[in-house]
Amino acid sequence: MAKKQKMTFLKSAVKMKDYPDGNMKEIAFAGRSNAGKSSLINVLAGEKIAKVSQAPGKTRLLNFFTMGESYVLVDMPGYGYASRGHEEQKVWKKMVESYLSQRPQLVGLVLLMDMARDWQQDEEVLAQYVMKHDIPILVGLTKADKFSKNDIEKAIVRIKKQSRLEEVFAISSQTRKGCHELEEYVYRNWVRES
Ligand code: GDP
After folding, report:
1. Whole-angstrom distance, CA of residue 62 vs CA of residue 65
2. Which atom of ligand 1 is found nearest the CA of 172?
3. Who contacts 150 (Cβ-Cβ below 8 Å, separation ≥6)?
4. Whether 171 contacts 182, CB under 8 Å
5. From CA 129, how far away is CA 113, in angstroms rounded?
6. I need a surface site. Which of 17, 109, 167, 191 has the fewest CB within 10 A?
7. Helices of type H across 86-148
8. Looking at residue 83, what is its pLDDT?
């Protein structure tokens, strides 16, 4: 954001008919359960606006938040197929894919993953799906406070290689390092420029 703007909860939705009206640009935040998505959203909001550490599978809605007058942040339900039953997985997939493929306001996806993890099939499937719809994507490697500077550099190189994506950021919601830089990047490149 150009200047500090208030983040406000707008609404939750599952189906398209319930998405917010209006034509403000939207940026989606996704990640498997426990990636640190809620913690980052809370840092960006400057308050506890997103719930932290719910049981996996509990957050099944798309949550829309306005970032002042700038754009809408969309908190997508955490993925992690292993922890879900088959039916739940299907419902999740349908909701996420409908949103990602049919939302003209969507200008980019921030994919969050724990810096300790490798890029896996779930990340690859999501990234491929998003890119197929010409939506830009960046990766935020979370919990960077657990690593040395050297290991952070290595993790960035490793994930760039595994994902074949160019924009990979290291962030920590605990120290807040990198969080506002990531937000600044998406605002400049996806909101202001698109
Ligand atoms: P979500 O499921 O993706 O929304 O993840 P949460 O934000 O609920 O975080 C999952 C767990 O990781 C919680 O125990 C958080 O306290 C922890 N966590 C999140 N961000 C950080 C971080 O930057 N550093 C550290 N050390 N732990 C974090």
Report:
1. 10
2. 23
3. none
4. yes
5. 17
6. 17
7. 86-101, 121-132
8. 54
Q: Which two tokens stand for residue 16?
A: 């398209």
Measured from CB, residues less than 6 Å from any atom of ligand 1 are 31, 33-39, 52-53, 78, 142-143, 145-146, 172-174
Handedness of CA 4, 65, 135, 38 (dihedral sign): positive
Q: Give the nearest ligand 1 atom to 39 CA.
A: 7
Spatial contact of 62 and 99, defined as CB atoms under 8 Å apart: yes
Contact 30, 109 (CB under 8 A): yes
User: Are 79 and 122 in contact, with CB atoms under 8 Å apart?
Assistant: yes
For residue 2, what pLDDT is reported?
Answer: 46
What pLDDT, in 10s, does the model give residues 127-177?
A: 999 999 999 999 999 999 999 999 999 999 999 999 999 999 999 999 999
Token digits of residue 55: 């049981």
Distance 36 CA to ligand 1 centre (A): 4
Structure tokens at 163: 């994902």
Task: Return the H-helix or E-strand segment holding 124.
Answer: helix 121-132
CB 78 within 8 A of CB 88: no
Pairing relationship of beta strands 106-114 and 137-142 according to DSSP bridges: parallel
Cα 57 from Cα 103, distance rounded (Å): 24
Helices (H) and strands (E) in the chain, counts: 5, 7
Decide: helix, strand or coil at residue 13. Answer: strand
The closest alpha carbon to 28, from 71, 69, 90, 57, belongs to 71
